[in-house]
Request: fold
Amino acid sequence: MGISMIGMLTSYSGIQQSDWLWQQTPHPFGRWGNIQMQATAAQPDFLLLYNCHDFDCSPAQFNKLKKIFNWQFHHSLSEAEIQKKLNYLPKERIISLWREPPFEEKRSQRIAGYALSEHYCGYVSGPDKFAPIPDYMPAIWYHVNSFREFAEMPAPAKTRSCSWITSGIDRTANHRQRLAFLQQLQQQFEFDLYGRGLPDWVKSKGVLANKWNGMAPYFYNLAIENYAENEWYATEKLWDALLAWCLPIYYGGSAADRLLPPGSFLRLPSFDQAGIDFIREVTATPDAWMAAHGAIAQAREIILYELNLLNWLSNYVGSL
Reply:
């Protein structure tokens, strides 16, 4: 069996590079098993629509979805223009993976997006109960370190207690709840905060070019999801912390319990005083981190070799 080239379309404006995900494999040029990830490939064998929520549709499909869901897509294309954008690939070779939180405020848009994806894609999945295939999101991570570094490195020297890397996004009630907890936490507990777009009242150490620098020196990392209300949603907030050998103090849904070994993370009980007291007690000593060392090592192997999006794509291609 030859190597299948995987191209990619996405609505994330920051993802434009040819070497997208290449750091998630030990092999050059995005190779993993029977695939090669080449996001900008001119003639791919398969096409990944990665959170492609503004994908254009034909006028007929546009009008149908507008009527059903009362939601405007960006604009419409002719069917010929769509097929050109999709590289004239057959439906079974087009994969749509959604990875944004299923906020209630975005429900109608997500349902419409799934309906549109099903029209053109042979596989459509996302972390929603109303997704065509409800499932967890295969792992990507946001460290720039190489795969070999992660696979071979021991735990780095830990010199500080606890960090949190987050943003000041406040578009939904979930975002605002997280920011309210951040404000309450900073009033009572000392930790190192990093992130972009944070409110003026935040005491922050600034923006990081590499998340590794805000995680690797810390025993603990606050891994707070934007959404915690279902059994499928889990993100890089966990993967990044564990790959940096942190013990995550995690607030999220039950997907993490299914995907990772017991003891590889701690659950933040709540966004209130009990949660703050829990963080303060755990981070007072490195004891919990030392007790979790073996579980963290096991979780890292699972992230690198099993949950890895490249591994998922390789398995999908091999199943056809």
In short: The mean pLDDT is 90. The radius of gyration is 21 Å. The longest strand covers residues 160-167.
